[in-house]
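A protein record pairs a chain with a discrete description of its three-dimensional fold. The following entry can be read in just this way.
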Amino acid sequence: MGDLISRAEALERLSLLRKLNSTEPIQIALDAVEQQIQFCETAFNKEKVLEELAIRKENEDEKAAAFDEAGDIYNMEMRDNISLAFQTAIKIVKRGGIDG
């Protein structure tokens, strides 16, 4: 079992705790925990990661186009596949790493 848990999963578990513990002091404490979960920053800057992946994808697209112009189909296809891998990574990051 890893150390990572999604924000949604943490909030779901917190919701279960709320149902089990209805006393006011506990509810106040759970409110504070919920605020921390809601406003806690992610482990990385999603926008910067997406920006970097997009730049790398664009670079591979440009290389593929250059190989295509030169008639080098093998290297063009290789660069197209690398570009596709970056596109897939972009989709994964946009989804938050959740398969779907």
